[in-house]
């Protein structure tokens, strides 16, 4: 391996061992993603169509394409529903669309919304308002829906909404806090899609991408009552020192922008089911690690915090396990944050991997693969953005050989540039699901080579 000295035979054996462990880590991650894909669970949760009236299917988020295509096949082929009784609209981030037979499928911006986001939210609200008491409105919801369904309230323009999104993304605020602010600036988020659909029966089938699976946080909760308050939103803006456009400030200053609360009659005929969770993916990863001969240490699906700080804590855990002679796998999920101070490229998973490599300092026998189950980690909003990164004991020596400075890359938030130079970006492409991150750290105390 580059940057490591030794006999040729020993180097080859070491390289083979590292490559094999990388493959194991990738297989564990792939099992987690497969468990989260709608093809594993959606059919068993789809409701019967209404006795009369129409089934109005509205889908948004990174899993919208796969969920819509599966739902179409179920209703048109398995159930035999007349096409005239099935209508709707589906939207996913650019590159996450799928070919659908009947329901129109379009793409919109993520994480920063675009005109497609506004057009899709407008169409969803139109279809919801047209629903009658004889109809069933079926909402297939997944992470990314906040950016895919954008209906600015008041006089807020798209450019101003984009400014708000960028400020929130750069702030380091957890996704739940971002969504509390977004709800006050929207005509569809925070339960307002449910208001539009009443009095029709409303069923939401959701893929959770948020810690603790809070329905009010998934895609900013368009179909559920919102327990957060206007005071919460104002406090978040103040806490992070956010500079918002005047139109956004006006909405946050106006109590009329408050969202519908629990007990509102619009939710009387509404049901919400979370059918895929981060915990499901982490459980699959734990099972795969055990099958590969590792002692799984499940740190849970809901980790939050600054990516580099969580990485340092997990590096200490990994080193402690190795010192105890345990062949173990540290598995964790959740959604970490990055407070952006530099001008580089990256995302929470890549920053975690870079900080972890620095903290491990080339410790032999430890490999980590960290990625977002949706297939993209930060980046510029392109479907080709990396999902995460992989590190091993050769990461720092190879970086030095290439003239890369890991500490400087971390200071500049340029984890993508760092791992791109090493060829160690995790690239999965769009996975058409989204249950948050999956971090796999494999610890092998036995030397890989004599």
UniProtKB/TrEMBL annotation:
Domain of life of the source: Bacteria
Signal peptide start and end residues: none
Record-linked InterPro entries: GK-like_C_sf (IPR037035), GK_N_sf (IPR038614), MOFRL (IPR007835), MOFRL_assoc_dom (IPR025286), MOFRL_protein (IPR039760)
Span of domain MOFRL: 329-437
Ranges where the MOFRL-associated domain occurs: 25-252
UniProt xrefs under Gene3D superfamilies: Glycerate kinase, MOFRL-like N-terminal domain (3.40.50.10180), MOFRL domain (3.40.1480.10)
Protein name, UniProt field: DUF4147 domain-containing protein
